[in-house]
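BUG: 3D viewer hangs when loading the predicted structure for this chain

Environment: internal workstation, default settings.
Expected: structure renders.
Actual: progress bar stalls at 90%.

Input used:
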Amino acid sequence: MRKKDTNAIVNYTDKIIIKANIDTQTDAFFYRNKEEDTRLHLKPNNRYRLFLSLDYEFIGVSVGLVPKFLGANSDENLKGESSFTDYQFRFFLGRWVQGLNYSKVSGYYVRNTKDFAHNWIEG
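Structure tokens produced before the viewer hung:
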């Protein structure tokens, strides 16, 4: 008697796939002034980002935002307000995936303020 193969490949082309993802990735910028030997570290006040995604047949859509309900950015009075939005569109064309992405981050603060204002006290 022959054993049945349990490692079947599932085709998802006719299935709806819904995903939710929370990540802590952030966009940061570093600027180095060689003349003064200083380094500026700019970072948005977004600790958590939420992505919601829907894929069906040949198209996929994702929306990313900063969830206010988690209370992750409760220190806006210290660091200022930041915002994040992200839109992604994916097209599944046979063995190829083509994507379009728009992302906007605003409201950066200086992470290393103490390097520039020596009498600065956090908080």
